[in-house]
Structure formats: C-alpha cells, structure tokens
Amino acid sequence: MNTTFIQGGLRGDLVDALSTPADLDLWVEEHAEALPRELAERASASATAFHLEEFRRLREALRELSRACTAEEPYDEQAVTVVNRGARLAVNWPELGRPGEPGPVVRWAETDPYLALLGVVAVSGVELLAGPHRHDVRACAAPGCILYFVRAHRRREWCTPGCGNRVRVARHHDRRRT
Ligand SMILES: [Zn+2]
User: How far is the CA of 27 from the centre of ligand 1 (A)?
Assistant: First the structure.
C-alpha cells in the first residue's frame, strides 16, 4: 500500500514506486525477508505487465478498504472481491520432503510465483482489515501524506517520524508568522 506516496510534503509530487514490471521485481527483492522465501526466489526479475497490473489492482483495493476502515464505512464490494480473489492464490500446504531432503516442503496451488506472492499480500490484507488490528488502521495526519499505518500506541498520528517532524516544523513556522 505504501508503494505510492507524496514526496516533498504538501506541494510535493505523487510518486508511484510500482510503475513498471522492474519496479515490482525491486519490491519483491526489497521485501524478500517478509515473503515466503521459495516464492521470492522463483520470482527472479521476470515480472510482466500482467503481474504489475494485478499488483496495482490489489494495491488500489487495499487502499480503498483502508480508507473505508479509517472512516468506519462499510467495505466496497468490488474492492472486497479483488482482495478475496487474490487471497485464493495463496493456497499452500506442507508436504514431506523426499528421502534425504529436509522437510516439510511447502507446495503452492498457484504455479506462477508472482501470483502466489500477490496471494500472500492479499491474505495479509484480509488479516489486517478483518482482524483485531483493523481498529488501529490510521490515515497519516500530516498534510499532503497519503499513507496508512497501523498505530502501535494510542497517540501515534504519523506514518513515520519524518511526517511528524514535518508537521512540527510547519507549526513552528506558523507560530512565528503569527
Ligand atoms: Zn505520513
């Protein structure tokens, strides 16, 4: 969800870090630690325009659902369909390894590693937006910021310390002007 953001504050530019298939490969590489290792390894720099489009669609759906979540509105049916369809791509099960192989071996129903990875992201979206932490999803309160975050403590208002600093600096300038 954070692959699109505003760079440069209130009058900044909208950045889309998922603009090309190579961007998607970079994302997989940068998040490999948080993803099933076997999928991340199989998805080695071969993302296509189709994969990119699917990930972008999931991102838009998750952003819309996060917006509805923070606004305490019901979830949009179309966005729910996109996420649920994605979640089904994450079907996997453990199998015993072959003799001499350390088991268990995880098998994935979806053979395309990018689509299986999309499934993993969709499942984490379901767990967030339908789980107990959904009440902690917040939109960043900094002007010009479009990010969502899960607040770890009650008073957190910003997605990152950077946004918090930006707001404090702006307030300081406002006070000096008045
Ligand atoms: Zn922010």
Answer: 20
Q: What is the DSSP string of the chain?
A: -TTEEEESGGG-EEEES-SSHHHHHHHHHHTGGGS-HHHHHHS-S---HHHHHHHHHHHHHHHHHHHHHHTT-PPPHHHHHHHHHHHGGG-EEEEPPPTTS-S-EEEES--SHHHHHHHHHHHHHHHHHHSGGGGGEEE--STT---EEE-SSTT---SSHHHHHHHHHHHHHHHHH-
Its CATH architecture, for the domain 4-177, is Orthogonal Bundle (1.10)
Q: How far is the CA of 9 from the centre of ligand 1 (A)?
A: 9
**Could you read off the pLDDT tens digit of each residue along the chain, which spans 178 residues?**
999 999 887 788 999 999 999 999 999 999 999 999 999 999 988 999 999 999 999 999 999 999 999 999 999 999 999 999 999 999 999 999 888 887 888 999 999 999 999 999 999 999 999 999 999 999 998 988 999 999 988 888 899 988 988 888 888 888 887 7
Q: Say how many Å lie between the CA of residue 105 and the centre of ligand 1.
A: 40
The structural domains of the chain, with segments of one domain joined by +, span 4-177
